[in-house]
């Protein structure tokens, strides 16, 4: 599909001065908590660390510079079955680019894909084979980023997003067949595409391999699933297990049980919003103890501003509650559940307790999750954390290309 054939008119991203001025006013009038006795971060994000980032937000961060970088790509605003959808596009450069839709996670934005878009779309310019080119479509999930506000769809969840993506790619953009990839929540969206629409996909590539019913059930908010810690665990593995619980427990519990209550604070205070998502960026990335190993201050604040200017924190968090409230149901009873050929990228920072990277693939194949997928390419890397295409973009691109090589 050429530029001339693309069915929509580009709409560059632009945030009004009024919105940016309001943000600045709120940042400069914050009332800080004491944060006494939290030098070790035991109680959460440390005030001095957050205050330094907020001061940078006020005095040094330049949204217009970020906006300019974002607008180096094509952007579109469309309605898909009445749902507002923003997407970024980079046309493929090669003999037969495959359409590829990339689905992000939480607290991600579409911009977390920015490091892989160019090499996926134009392999030759990045030392690759132009035969591996993709026509890259990068939407903001409904209720996230510029796919907001979402007043008429308070029930949005991952499997409903998959239906929207399929409508977007086939009915609206006219692709007869396409590829899909995703991480975190986006991996569930992508997995659902591979389940419900597998025959119309070249395949999928994901950064995790959860069962699609992960959020089903009465205690989906309990990361540990109510399981006690075995008494005979070696201390090192026990500590890893507790660290993993602590990494995700509050996030899942609040987002599944009462995200709307938290949203009153986070929608009103950009500092409160930044604190909540910064903690996840810190705890979930493989940053070796320094977040700026992974995200510069400008990176952090670009993503945070995208959340803030669209008042999207409430609807982004509510997806978790809706994944549980409106549980996933299978579209067919065939096995594997996800029939589309599936590639998986695992990263060392998310290794299960007691499992090393060189054991990761074998360990996965022995779990009950493996049988859900028609897996054709599984790779485990020592480096990288939760934000895979941002943290290890070259490895993600290599893995994804391998998944789709020979499948076009």
Your description of this structure?
41% of the residues lie in helices and 14% in strands. With 408 residues, it is α/β, with parallel strands linked by helices. The chain is built from 14 helices and 8 strands. The two termini are 15 Å apart.
Brief summary:
The chain has 14 helices and eight strands.
Radius of gyration in whole Å, from Cα? 21 Å
Q: Largest sheet, order of strands side by side?
A: 1-2-4-3-5-6-7-8
- Give the % helix: 40-55%
In this structure, how is the largest beta sheet organized?
8 strands, mixed
What is the residue-averaged pLDDT? 96
Q: Which stretches are poorly predicted, pLDDT < 50 over at least 5 residues?
A: none
> What proportion strand?
5-15%
- Report the order of strands and helices: HHHEEEHEHEHEHHHHHEHEHH
Shape: globular
Number of DSSP strands?
A: 8
- Helix- and strand-based class? alpha/beta
Distance linking N and C termini: 15 Å
Number of helices: 14
Pfam family, one: EHN
Protein name: Multidrug MFS transporter
Keywords: Aromatic hydrocarbons catabolism, Hydrolase
Organism: Paenibacillus cineris
